[in-house]
């Protein structure tokens, strides 16, 4: 949804397309921006991006709230190319031995001997992962640096799973968070209107404003939304 769509939604909810509001569209748009700023810290929708590998990656100008996970783009057996063959430098030895064991010159002796070598190979990997965890990472928020550890070899590229920073509401595409932003923006706008309409009181008027009720509704809705976000928050992402 665009910012104008949020504004139109709020205006219709408060006026029904009949009444007029005391505040402008720009003021309502500012209420939507305030809602995004407060909800942003709870948004846990992630994105993926593949970048060239480096032990230290500069995150400057990279709009990232936190890094969730770092993945290798190639496994032990590499990636399958367009011709169907396995490509990549890290080849699983069992993949090679499968052809050796069942080819014309293969024997059970070769297979048994290779199994022992394969067990040694796995033991070596376990030892490496014991002393150093593959794709372990740490973020230096002060210097905007991401440090990545490669346990057994250096891949050409890695995939980062991260929580983005949203500059505008247009960038929010999750239906759940769009709904939260709509309700949050509406509640903030109600509190603004409530304060405006209760700024002055008319003692001898034939009619009264609904400022007190509007202010109460807005505050109650904000409290309920904040409690929902607090109790439903599952953010355990490393930010240090």
């Amino acid at each position: 949804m665009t910012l104008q769509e949020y504004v139109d939604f709020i205006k219709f909810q408060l006026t029904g397309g009949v009444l007029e509001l005391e505040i402008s569209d720009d003021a309502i748009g500012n209420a939507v921006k305030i809602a995004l700023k407060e909800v942003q810290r709870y948004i846990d929708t992630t994105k993926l991006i593949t970048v060239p590998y480096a032990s230290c990656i500069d995150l400057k100008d990279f709009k990232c709230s936190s890094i969730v996970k770092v993945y290798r783009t190639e496994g032990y057996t590499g990636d399958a190319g367009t011709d169907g063959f396995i490509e990549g430098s890290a080849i699983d030895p069992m993949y090679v031995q499968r052809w050796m064991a069942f080819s014309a010159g293969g024997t059970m002796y070769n297979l048994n001997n290779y199994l022992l070598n394969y067990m040694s190979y796995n033991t070596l990997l376990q030892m490496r992962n014991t002393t150093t965890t593959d794709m372990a990472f740490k973020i230096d928020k002060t210097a905007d640096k991401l440090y990545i550890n490669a346990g057994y070899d250096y891949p050409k590229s890695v995939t980062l799973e991260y929580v983005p920073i949203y500059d505008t509401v247009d960038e929010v595409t999750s239906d759940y968070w769009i709904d939260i932003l709509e309700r949050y923006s509406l509640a903030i706008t109600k509190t603004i209107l409530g304060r405006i309409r209760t700024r002055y009181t008319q003692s001898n008027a034939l009619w009264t404003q609904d400022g007190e009720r509007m202010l109460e509704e807005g505050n109650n809705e904000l409290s309920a939304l904040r409690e929902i976000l607090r109790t439903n928050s599952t953010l355990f992402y490393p930010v240090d």
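Residues 131 and 206 are 80 Å apart (CA to CA). The chain has a mean pLDDT of 82.
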